[in-house]
Design brief:
- This is CopG family transcriptional regulator.
- InterPro entries: Arc_rbn_hlx_hlx, RHH_8, Ribbon_hlx_hlx.
- Pfam families: RHH_8.
- The protein is an alpha/beta fold.
- It folds into 2 domains: 24-56, no CATH class; 60-137, no CATH class.
- It is 42% helix and 21% strand.
- The protein has a 3-stranded parallel sheet, covered by helices on one side.
- Helix 5 (108-114) links the parallel strand 2 and strand 3.
- The chain is elongated.
Length: 139
C-alpha cells in the first residue's frame, strides 16, 4: 500500500547536528581556506565537501533508493493519516531516506497499531513515547 501522508510537515525541518573528529593538520588547512576567503566558515567548507561527495555518488544513492523502495525527502504522518490506515485494516512499512516525521498527536498505541516497520536513513522526529513504543520495529 502506498504511504499515506500529508504533503509537508508542519514546519521546516531543522538541520541535524553531527560531531566529527578531525586531525590538527586537516583542521589547520580548513582554517587557512576560511581565512583566505574560500569559505565563510568551517561549516561552509564541510557542507560543501559533503555535498560534493554526495553528488559524486549520486547514481549509487539513486540505485539503492530504488532497490530498497525508499521515499526520498520528507515523509510526515499525522494521527489522521494513521487512523485512516487503521480503519482500512492495514499497516505501514515506512522506509525513508531523509526525514520521517510522526506528529505529536500520534499516540504510542496508534503508532503500534499502524506501523509494522520503520526504516529511516537520516532523521526520525517523533515524541519520545512513540519512539520508545516503536523501538523493536525500527530497523
Amino acid at each position: 500500500m502506498p504511504a499515506r501522508s500529508t504533503l509537508a510537515p508542519p514546519s521546516r525541518p531543522v538541520d541535524e547536528k553531527i560531531t566529527i573528529n578531525i586531525g590538527c593538520v586537516d583542521l589547520g588547512q580548513i582554517d587557512l581556506l576560511v581565512q583566505e576567503g574560500f569559505y565563510a566558515n568551517r561549516t561552509d567548507l564541510i557542507r560543501t565537501a559533503i555535498r560534493n561527495q554526495l553528488a559524486a555518488h549520486g547514481d549509487a544513492v539513486r540505485d539503492v533508493v530504488s532497490r530498497k523502495t525508499l521515499v526520498l525527502g520528507i515523509q510526515h504522518y499525522t494521527a489522521a493519516d494513521l487512523q485512516a490506515v487503521k480503519e482500512a485494516g492495514e499497516k505501514l512499512q515506512i522506509r525513508v531516506l531523509g526525514l520521517a516525521s510522526i506528529a505529536h498527536d500520534v499516540t504510542p498505541k496508534l503508532a503500534l497499531a499502524t506501523i509494522e516497520s520503520l526504516t529511516v536513513l537520516g532523521a526520525l522526529h517523533a515524541s519520545p513515547a512513540v519512539k520508545a513504543a516503536l523501538r523493536d520495529r525500527i530497523g
